[in-house]
From TrEMBL:
Segments forming domain ABC transporter: 2-234
Name of the protein described by the UniProt record: ABC transporter ATP-binding protein
Top-level taxon in the UniProt lineage: Bacteria
Protein family according to the UniProt entry: Belongs to the ABC transporter superfamily.
A single MF term (Gene Ontology): ATP binding
Keywords assigned: Amino-acid transport, ATP-binding, Nucleotide-binding, Transport
Amino acid sequence: MLEIRDLECGYGPVAALKGVSLDVGEGELVALIGANGAGKSTTLRAISGLVKPRAGTIRFAGADITGADPARILSLGIAHCPEGRRVFPYMSVADNLAMGAYLRRDPIRVREDYDRVYSDFPRLAERRHQAAGTLSGGEQQMLAIGRALMSRPKLVMFDEPSLGLAPTIVEQTLGIIRAIRDGGATVLLVEQNAFAALELCDHAYLIETGRVVRRGGGPELIADPHVRAAYLGG
């Protein structure tokens, strides 16, 4: 579904990605792991059109989307659930969800998706008229996920979904991401908890200083001595 080849991106003179290549198959959950600043978030931002590549190609479902406008990328079926949740704090829960569906022209199915999100996240249903900025961190993460799902994406990208959450909420959030994959969507996951990500994924890539240095199945990378020493506590 997603093919990235020799991707290079940067911020001013700083090179963030130095020839990253990766593949995400339809229906897979693929994880990107690595230290802060390694280039994981930049990879997601390049896919969603927020960062323009300096070189390389990004193809989605056969279409070249390298450097495409974010609205076009969203319309093709890619949703990005960003780091830090990035909800609209002064808008209600319901209005935040509406923003996730702003490109859609099928109001009946949009209404169905509202109901589905509220069914999956009962806390959001209880707070549908509440300002998003007054929600707890876990509730805001639920809202960010729900907002992403309102576009009916084929590929959902999650950037550090467990960051800053209590352990019980982390477990719930990762369970939701697993359920999204099991429901038929393809998932690309950036996650600080490397062990949880590797347990959850079908395949994973380790990015260090802007380059892919390891790739393989979750169990394979969990057993890798370098990964264990650097990211899994030995």
